[in-house]
Design the sequence.
């Protein structure tokens, strides 16, 4: 790396009647002038602002996707609980999650309920249910190593994913149910959409079926209120 070099050349000449001194300062850099500190600060601040804008765009895009799925789920004739029942009839096992996937906008296929069913051993089944008539659109099977954790979380539970969906339906249209097997407070995470109230997350107790507001969701709502 080449650095800026300042060369001072002073030539003194003694003349009759007085002396004259000339000073010359030259700054040179064969690779161009280095950016000023102020310019660097402005550039860095602009980059941070651009990153924040990108993050907001990503969040908005996810929110738009959730809104689209919720609107479609509201109009579906087959509920989340119905989809689970249809999936288990086709593929016996334990339903661990259900999610409404509106794929029409991405040209990836028709909208469908996606139900994950835990089978024997380490076998997982993903069953797609038509939201209009409850028919099975397709299914696939794979093996995963996380089945032990899921079985441990469900041990001693008396509330199924289907029952959790029915319990939370009083809060709005259920768009997804998923088993939370992390930490001490295990339960069913349920997402609902109510007209005019937007998306809300709930926790359904694995043993009692009690529906309570998700703590993280409450915290997000409080943050949004403070921002307003």
Sequence:
């Amino acid at each position: 790396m080449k650095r800026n070099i300042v060369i001072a050349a002073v030539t003194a000449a003694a003349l009759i009647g007085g002396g004259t001194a000339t000073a010359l300062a030259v700054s040179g850099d064969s690779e161009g002038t280095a950016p000023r500190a102020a310019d660097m600060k402005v550039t860095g601040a602009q980059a941070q602002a651009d990153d924040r804008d990108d993050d907001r765009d990503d969040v908005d895009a996810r929110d738009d996707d959730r809104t689209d799925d919720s609107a479609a789920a509201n109009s579906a004739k087959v509920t989340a609980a119905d989809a689970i029942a249809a999936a288990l009839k086709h593929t016996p096992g334990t339903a661990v999650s259900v999610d409404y996937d509106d794929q029409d906008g991405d040209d990836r296929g028709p909208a469908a309920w996606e139900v994950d069913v835990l089978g024997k051993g380490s076998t997982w089944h993903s069953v797609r249910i038509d939201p209009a008539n409850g028919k099975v659109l397709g299914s696939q099977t794979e093996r995963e190593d996380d089945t032990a954790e899921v079985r441990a979380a469900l041990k001693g539970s008396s509330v199924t994913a289907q029952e959790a969906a029915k319990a939370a339906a009083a809060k709005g249209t259920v768009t997804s149910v998923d088993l939370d097997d992390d930490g001490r407070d295990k339960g069913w995470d349920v997402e609902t959409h109510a007209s005019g109230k937007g998306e809300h997350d709930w926790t359904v107790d694995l043993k009692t079926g009690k529906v309570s507001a998700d703590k993280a969701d409450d915290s997000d709502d409080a943050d949004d209120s403070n921002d307003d």
